[in-house]
Specification:
This protein has helices at 40-58, 78-85, and strands at residues 13-16, 19-25, 65-72, 95-100, 108-115. The protein is of the alpha+beta class and 119 residues long. The mean pLDDT is 95.
Length: 119
């Protein structure tokens, strides 16, 4: 309930083999409201908050993120994205790929593979 529900036919996350595969998280509130007109930084924070909420619901945190794929509408915003991103992830940061994308649901979308903590 702390992250928005899927906007289509997909699971928000799938847990398999000690890993959490998180579907693309966009700048939406848990209610599902899209933040399309919000400033870039606010959109990034909303998408990162959603990613973190899904991780928590699966029993892990972004400190255990292994790989994050970032889709940005404007690659020129990569520096600002990175400033915000580093406040959400652990050290060392996860592997990451940034892809320029013609997003229709905001300025950023994030997908991730996150490890479950060892028991």
């Amino acid at each position: 309930p702390q992250a928005p529900p899927p906007a289509g036919t997909y699971s928000t996350a799938i847990v398999h083999g000690g890993l959490v595969y998180v579907s693309g998280q966009t700048p939406r509130l848990p209610s599902g409201e899209r933040l399309l007109d919000a400033p870039f930084a606010e959109q990034v924070c909303a998408a990162m908050d959603n990613l973190a909420a899904v991780a928590r619901a699966a029993g892990t945190t972004l400190d255990h993120a292994l790989n994050v794929t970032v889709f940005l509408r404007d690659q020129a915003m990569g520096g600002l994205f990175d400033e915000i991103y580093r406040t959400y992830v652990g050290d060392p940061p996860p592997a990451r790929t940034i892809v320029q994308s013609d997003l229709r649901v905001g300025e950023v979308e994030l997908a991730a593979v996150i490890a479950l903590p060892a028991e």
